[in-house]
Amino acid sequence: MLDVDGRAGGGQQVRTALSLAAVEGRSIRVENVRAERPDPGLKAQHVAAIEAVAAATEATVEGAEAGGDAFTFEPTAPPGGEFAVDVGTAGSATLVCDALLPLAVVLEEPLTVRVRGGTDVKWSPPADYLLHAKLPFLRGLDVDADVSVERRGFYPAGGGTLSLTVRPSTVAGLRLRERGPVRGLSARAVAAESLESASVAERMADAVADRTAVPTETTATYAETASPGAVLTLVADCGDARAGFGVLGERGVPSESVAEEAVEAFRGWRATGAPVDEHLGDQLLPWVALAGGAVRLPRVTDHVRTNAAVIRAFGYELEIAEGNEGAVASAPLRE
């Protein structure tokens, strides 16, 4: 059984360890989960990710409960099947999907999962980031996966639902050391129906177009939700490369300020010259290890360092080379 120390990182270490254990059919014990965080231990969304990957691999699991600091995971079957997972809170449904996507490289049959929880919540990628930034990027690597948003879920009630289907895939190596010009920008604003009278979604979307010279396609929609909320997601299209930036609306914060924050995040990324945004760069590390190749990152964050440590614990030759122009994550190409 492989021991993984999760003290220095967050939930990404848990998700990466689960994904690689499922891909390799390897038993793991993750200890000191998020021990150095102000709120250590497993959260509901981490437990849901464990339950999801366990269901896909018929794994035996011990210790996976909210607040727990360690768990064991022992897969017994090749990944696949159809099932549902409920986070039980407004915890991130998109990050549960994140743990399941790498299983594409070993699937023998499609995997379909309905995840109930928060679709657009803090500290996680919004649903439109997954739909329009990450998944299109992965499809460029020949990953065959789709997700649909059946219902939006904001904090604190959650109650949103995503439906994810992942199919057997032979993944191409990454070759993204440079980025082409930004071809266009999409701004997708979604708000609860209770906010329609204040035109919250239209104001967020229109404010983006007013603040950037890049050609921008805007959409503004409203959804029936259990809790009021709003989210704005920008996606930059650079051909083979993509970057996304999600900002949640908050009570008392003008829609225009939400748009300004998202545009500033886009501008900051654009200045780096990196082909992917900071969060996608972190999430791509398992794919670099599994398929090989290289991708340039905007910078090396603590998330990158701790995620890379988990990947190396599985024996993958993942290198993070830092320089004046950012950093490059690379691994030998797979045959």
TrEMBL record:
GO terms assigned for molecular function: RNA-3'-phosphate cyclase activity
Membrane-spanning ranges: none
Pfam families to which the protein is assigned, alphabetical: RTC, RTC_insert
Annotated EC: 6.5.1.4
InterPro entries: RNA3'-term_phos_cycl_insert, RNA3'_phos_cyclase_dom, RNA3'_phos_cyclase_dom_sf, RNA3'_term_phos_cyc, RNA3'_term_phos_cyc_type_1, RNA3'_term_phos_cycl-like_CS, RNA3'P_cycl/enolpyr_Trfase_a/b, RPTC_insert
PROSITE patterns referenced in this protein's UniProt entry, alphabetically: RTC
Family indicated by similarity: Belongs to the RNA 3'-terminal cyclase family. Type 1 subfamily.
Stated role: Catalyzes the conversion of 3'-phosphate to a 2',3'-cyclic phosphodiester at the end of RNA. The mechanism of action of the enzyme occurs in 3 steps: (A) adenylation of the enzyme by ATP; (B) transfer of adenylate to an RNA-N3'P to produce RNA-N3'PP5'A; (C) and attack of the adjacent 2'-hydroxyl on the 3'-phosphorus in the diester linkage to produce the cyclic end product. The biological role of this enzyme is unknown but it is likely to function in some aspects of cellular RNA processing.
Record-given protein name: RNA 3'-terminal phosphate cyclase
Gene it is expressed from: rtcA
